[in-house]
Amino acid sequence: MPITGRCLCENVKYKISVSPISQGVCYCRQCQKSGGATGLLVLHTDAFEFSGTLSSYETNSDDGSKVRRNFCPTCGSHVFAQILDVPGILTVKASTLDDTDFFVPQYLVWTRSTGRSCAFPSKVPSFQEDAPLEVVLGMAAQT
Ligand SMILES: [Zn+2]
Ligand SMILES: [Zn+2]
Predict the structure, then answer these.
(1) How far is the CA of 111 from the centre of ligand 2 (A)?
(2) Is 143 within a domain?
(3) Is the residue at 142 inside a domain?
(4) Which tens digits make up the pLDDT trace of 17-33?
């Protein structure tokens, strides 16, 4: 600690000051399209600090919740997202971490959206659609 990361062009830099609540991989189509690599760190918003300018884009996710995706307008790196129905929480794209070894997924979600292109690690709990919120927010006790 702290954990740091940045976008491709390094305009946007961030620091994570408290261990993530959980870490997972989201295979939903929107994460695939917005970022390619879809590892996520789930954080309390006050554990996250960034510098630089971000643009954002809001969508209704595959399960109907509103998601704001924040990305660098210069290089296009997707840095973090907020689920607007779950205030106080954000998800940081693990692909932007400076130390990618920090990311160890604890669950996989929306596995049904990958088609046949993806093999899943068998020891990680996986969900065809979204994981229950208890899973996403309850992993902290186990880490
Ligand atoms: Zn950038
Ligand atoms: Zn997703």
Answers:
(1) 10
(2) no
(3) no
(4) 999 999 999 988 888 88
